Amino acid sequence: MRLQRSRVGIILSYALLTTLALLFFIPVMMMLAGSLKPDERVLMEAGSLAGFIPGEVSLQNYTDVFNRTEFLGFLFNSLFITGTIVIFGLLVNALAAYAFARLRWRGRDLFFNLVLAVMILPLEAIAVPLFYGVSLLGLRDTYLAQILPFIANAFSIYLFYAFFIGLPRELEEAARLDGASTLRTFFSIIVPNSKPVFASVAILNFLMWWGAYLWPLMVTIGPEVRPLPVAIAAFYTLPPLQWGDILAFSVMMVAPVLLLFILFQRWFVRGVAATGIKG
Amino acid sequence: MYILIALTFAALLFISGCTDTDNPEGHINALAVWAHAGQERERNTLKSQVARYNKNHPQHPVRLTLIPEGSYNAQVQAAAVAGNLPDLLEFDGPFLYAYIWQGRLQPLDNLLPETLIDDLLPSILQQGSYRDHLWSVGIFDSGLGLYADRSRLVAVGARIPTLENPWRQDEFNNILQRLVNTDPDGQALDLKLNYGGEWYTYALSPLIQSAGGDLVSRGEVYSAQGSLNGPETADVLHTIQRWIEAGWVDPNIDDAAFTSGRVAMAMGGHWNYARYHEHLGEDLLLLPLPDFAYGSKTGQGSWSWSITSNCDNPKAAARFLAFLLQPEEVLAMTDANGAVPATRSAIGQSLRYRTGGALQLFVDQLKAGYAIPRPRTPAYPVITAEFQRAFERIRSGSDVQAVLDEAARSIDLEIEDNKGYPWLFTAVERQ
Amino acid sequence: MSPPARLDDHTPVVLLIAGPALIGLLVFVLVPFLFALLTAFTNLRLGSPLPLEFVGLKQFTRILSDPTFVRAMGNNFLFALIIVPLQTALALGLALLLNQGLRGTVIYRTLFFMPVVFPMSLVAVVWILIYAPGPNGMMNSLLDLLSFGQWQPRDFLRDPALALPAIMLLSIWQGTGFQMVILLAGLQAIPQELHEAAALDGAGHWQRFLHVTLPQLRNPLTFVMLITTILAFRLFDQVQIMTRGGPDNATTTVMYEMVETVFTRQQVARASAMTVIFFLLVLGVTWLQRHLVRETREVE
Description:
The structure holds three protein chains of three kinds. By secondary structure, chain A is mostly helical. Helix content of chain A is 73%, strand content 0%.
């Protein structure tokens, strides 16, 4: 009796999962297929099964993207900006979290409350004054304006803190008895024992800044330091409107991250999952 | 270890600082120029013009930055606060007066040769003048009209109108009705609803003005109350709303309503001509906008150039402007974007625009006063923003009068907040 | 947080190691926020040659009596009200389906999580094509297929009744995978013994879900709902790219109004007042959610 029911359950589960997966996959499929066919056919065939079949495959749209935009420049900008925020963010925020978790210092509780208070505050809440400041200082259209304000991150500090506080204190005691400095203890003991939280913070910040749109939209002017998310929106408004080209741009824009995701899927999933447990 | 971190940080800041593209200090003699990223051919033409100019002026080379049209004014405004404006700035013509009021520009008086000024179209001078100075010149002006498919007009027995004898409102409604009745999908008119943005203000103002309304009353102090929400303006927008609701207007989402033959008539500008001609050939007609009571009106004004108050070598900037205004350079640009050449000498050499050319109508409209400039006030940015939003709402079926009342209130509030834009300008003396 | 025992005062070294992050938070979060708080009471504009004046509460009274801004707040609430339960339920459903140890789970998980790595601006641009009006549009023909030809083609992003739901749908598509993964991890952390014990007590599937799974998932669920609520209040990218707040303000949001105000209209003071209101909204929602969740916990 029980077995029978679960067999039905399994079949039902598969049916449900497959239907949902297909629905989830439709936009991706259309993107891929559309990027490979002539512009005018993209819109025409979007409503039929032909929308998912490229027909005669042509890479014309891809060459168009390179001719019509500075795609590689945008890609570099995105990688550079996101990469810098993530790498420096890991260092700076982990160190601060360590100070909160393990060291005794004046003003610690005050600052910790500040971290807790601004943790849920999204960047958007300060976009206006930040925009005014950056405009006033003439720092618009620079990498600096897209990187520096976002390295320190209260949520990252909190995630690190929550992890460090759970590490057994004995780990550090030995190092300290050997006379290692605080920094040395951090790098030789804490960091190697905290890989999951580093991965988690890195991935969260990567996803957040790789896709950031509002801030770069406000502070970039020309294409020189424009990142991909702003570039694709600008490309969409750049006449003539050619859907094939836009889809080719989209495919090239997600391909590197998708590749990373598929290669390091385990880490992505763990990284994201880790954020919720402690919440 | 800590030193290492500090060093990498310093290095990062250094790299970021160096790539600061806004910073003209690195090229003392270069002339920083901002222009809008328009149509592909337009962009390429400007780039090649810059290259040509730089070859002959290696001592003051032009450094060109192209900025997406959508956020152009916002970009300029934000750059202006930090004094980060380039030397020479292109912008959408009607925004001129706001920049002047804020003290961002230098007058062009005496910087361009007299002969060149005399050669300019009256509409260009009208747009570029404010408070007894010439501040700005365009390389081209715009043309706005109604494109039509001759065979479809003939099929419904419509009269072909002229600038002197345009369609009257009832005649136009009648023709539109007949076109709709014979149209397979019932959508017979393209108002370029897909454009959005400044197009709404540019293209709908003439219809409103033809009916006797306007966006603002244009006295000493501009005010929207009674104009933007007056009965004439509301009437026109109501009519358009009815057309949209009746399904007579193609949303033109693919920008191909006219070229694919889905509609018989398309409101459009000079920039549409080349593609339309390619698709319709001899059947393509360019007509004046219908007369809603006070004669056919049309739009004017387009991208325009000014020297900013940041520029410490206005002569070099004016030299580049004069270069762009040479007949062959004007024609190079107008061949690319299809616009009306700004100088009479270029018009004379233009196959499309000279007397007898396919687009002569655009020149006639600009020369003979059919074209009305958009409100020449520092309040223009807010006027157009409010109007655009109002029309967005009207086309989605909102109550016309309520929407216009709200927009008029917002505009007048903004004018009041700016104390009526008192004249504070000092740059004239600086010169 | 009790001070660690047997440790000396580390203030000097802390200045070095925590300094960068703390300075960053002060300079780029706290100071700007205080600046916004101050300027909200002035007439500050970007690039205006007029002198700065204090105007009291004028910006606030104006914003709160501006029908567009009120509509924007309403849209944010509506968005949150629909998205949070819907997306959480979908994510939970997917997580439960994937937690049965079925073969191929990894493939399904990959597919559902994939949209998370798509930047929202890209998703918005691609979905404009999906929502193309006319019978050829993908969404239109899908609905036509599902309704056996009863569906009349609509222009989703131009239809005041459909534009916000259209944006909701793509937001769900992009965001569900993120929550699903968090909830899946939460499910996997539930000790199997709890289920077995409940089953021995004669609890059915549904009862076990109610009395074992849900209470055990409390933390991840709270977190997921909090994040989704904040995301709902940050709604901007999709709106800016797809509808620009239209049609008829049906999709405008607090964030969209704020950016329009400061960026397009240069009204820094007015936008600062919006910032303050936005901050209070997020704070209020967070507090409310924490509060409500705690209440239910106590009831159990």
